[in-house]
Amino acid sequence: MPETEQLFIETSQYLKPEDITQLRNAYSFGQGAHSGQFRKSGEPYISHPVAVARILSKLHLDAPTLTAALLHDVVEDTAISKAEISERFGEPVAELVDGVSKLTKIEFQTQEEAQAENFRKMLLAMARDVRVILIKLADRLHNMQTLDVMLPAKQRRIARETLEIYAPIAHRLGLNNIYQELQELGFRYSYPLRYRVLQKATKAARGNRREVVGKILDAINLKLKEAGLDADVTGREKHLFSIYMKMVEKRLSFSEVLDIYGFRVIVKDIPSCYVALGTLHSLYKPIPGKFKDYIAIPKTNGYQSLHSTLLGPFGIPIEIQIRTASMHRIAENGVASHWLYKSSDGDFNDLRLKTSQWLQSLLETLSDSTDSMEFLEHLKIDLFPGDVFVFTPQGKILSLPRGSTAVDFAYAVHSDVGNCCVAVKINSENAPLRTKLKSGDRVEIVTAPYAKPNPAWLSYVATGRARSHIRHFLKTIQYDESVKLGERMLNQALLSFNMNPDTITEAQWEKLVRDSGVKSKEELLADMALGKQLPAVVAKRLASPAESISPAQKAGPITILGTEGITVQFAKCCRPIPGDAIIGVIKKDSGLIIHTHDCGNVTSNQKNPENYLDVTWGKDITRTFEAAIKVTTANKQGVLARIAAEIAKAESNIDDIAMESEDDFMHMRFTLQVNNRHHLARVMRSLRHLREVAKISRTKG
């Protein structure tokens, strides 16, 4: 029977006659639009949309979704427009088709950038309507099922993308069957040789273990019957990808992976789950640390089950899953259970709520990420399943990915809590913010009203949500600082051209903004601070018969206070400190870099004078700066301790130490925190008084 007719027969089991008529119309429309197009396998192209619709029909998806599945490539691959689909099949179908379609009309610099923007568009549509991603997952599944015809390089690229993005999304939505098939196919085409070797080894092991598995199955059934439990018990073989990942993560050979079989027990209600667990623990000894209660604390995708690993006959580990029929339906079909089982069951409602919350967090990440590649990075971090369950002080449970820190927890509670967190108590004890959380930890975040996110947090946070909010905050702060610094830089440039900044008219600014291709005056000023625009060039373009200035207003240097934030940086090559003669260098995308006047990097590279600015230190600077010194001492015991004591006595802190010995001498390099040149001189004088110190000097670079 043709696959098209099978689709109509299968859908007629649950759709209305008028819905089937719409599907037939969509099929005819799609067949006409794809006329003359063929797949790499040689089949007519329409066979692919039909296969996608059949995958979705098994989940009992509604008529608009199946219609969109039949038309999902029409806008992308033919001359048909979204407006035509809307007119013919309705706006909801057109929106679904548009959400699945790629951004083929936009030119991107790289294939990675194009892919990232496509994911961004698709997930934005998915956040509005989850059916978009269901169509896309079915589309990817059929493409993976027919990947044989592609060249090996393309097979590997598509398979890697499937394992990194599509399979985790399917898992996050609880679509277990689709998730596992995508994983298996992704593994098969990513590592074809490993896949074949493991497949062969599993087949050989299956024959050897079949008798043992049969005995275990009979023993489980008998024991549950004796306990008066009506249970459906099935044995299942672990998937190849699951076995492979276990071998990789635990560095095992195949012969060492004993638990390639698992057993699933389905009972009538939740109390029966726990009775069954106790019964099976009396049959075979449980392995300590291998029990997980996902009924009391469900996974983020709504999955519920009891997991336990038992030590079976001949020392074979047996993995057991115990759940109710309702839990099993959600475990297999996840968010699609809403369509497959029309039910007001609380489990389904809870799942829909969790999915909605996840989609909402995706929208937040989308709005905070200006760059598509950055969003894709956040998404990949966020997709891997949560494995740590921690408690708030009020007893609420939060699920976080493995490796999550106290900062991740703070942002999971609320973005304002994350932005203002200064300390954490874990199980009532003070701990560093970078502490990795463990299941069962009780976490209390301490906040301060004027606290701000620390850029260093980005080096250890594990969740996309935390990373996204930190970056967004830092970008906003940087933008505000950049606007202020850019204004100071432009004023200096205007004064050097004998122009009074106060006389620049709005009309001049509007023309300059328009000609520069930026959105606002503030954006232009920020671009100057970040080195994307040169103040001298902008000042020349603003030149007009504006009022000239008096000699008293002539351009002076920009004052540096050290509190400008991340738009002003102090060069590591020369480490300027207050009291040093300094010069500013405008560096693209980095802002204003402060060097000492005699820095080698400045004196050897003054090819573009407009990139250099006169700068001077302000008065009453309160912050500390890095300075480096080299100390040569006698190679004696206790010298380092005496030097460190003298540095502390001079009210300086040591940031870093490097040492090397040479015969009777020791060369030490210290990076110190000092207020200014006078403070550094005081530190060096105090060290010269030590008998063991033979030589001391300030180092740059």
Q: Brief description of this entry?
A:
This protein has 701 residues and is α+β, with helices and mostly antiparallel strands.
Characterize the largest beta sheet: strand count, sense, and whether it forms a barrel. 5 strands, mixed
Oligomer description = single chain
What share of residues are in beta strands?
15-25%
Give average pLDDT, whole number.
82
Distance between the termini: 77 Å
Question: What is the number of beta strands?
Answer: 19
Shape: globular
Helical residues, percent? 40-55%
Mind telling me which CATH architecture of the largest domain this is?
Orthogonal Bundle
Can you tell me the CATH topology of the largest domain?
A: Hypothetical protein af1432
Number of helices: 27
Which class of the largest domain in CATH terms?
Mainly Alpha
- In total, how many domains does the architecture comprise? 5
Q: Which superfamily, in CATH terms, is the homologous superfamily of the largest domain?
A: Hypothetical protein af1432
Low-confidence stretches: 103-109, 549-554
Provide the structure class.
alpha+beta
Strand order of the largest sheet: 1-2-5-4-3
Domain ACT: 628-701
Domain HD: 45-144
Keywords: Kinase, Transferase
InterPro entries: ACT-like_dom_sf, ACT_dom, Beta-grasp_dom_sf, HD/PDEase_dom, HD_domain, NT_sf, RelA/Spo_fam, RelA/SpoT_AH_RIS
Description:
It is a single chain. With 701 residues, this protein is of the alpha+beta class. The chain folds into 5 domains: 3-190, Hypothetical protein af1432 (Orthogonal Bundle), CATH 1.10.3210.10; 197-340, Beta Polymerase, domain 2 (2-Layer Sandwich); 385-462, Ubiquitin-like (UB roll) (Roll); 472-617, no CATH class; 625-699, Alpha-Beta Plaits (2-Layer Sandwich), CATH 3.30.70.260. The protein contains 27 helices and 19 strands. The strands form 5 sheets. It has a 5-stranded mixed sheet with strand order 1-2-5-4-3. Helix 12 crosses helix 14. The longest helix is centred in the first third of the chain and has 35 residues, at 192-226. The protein starts with a helix and ends with a strand.
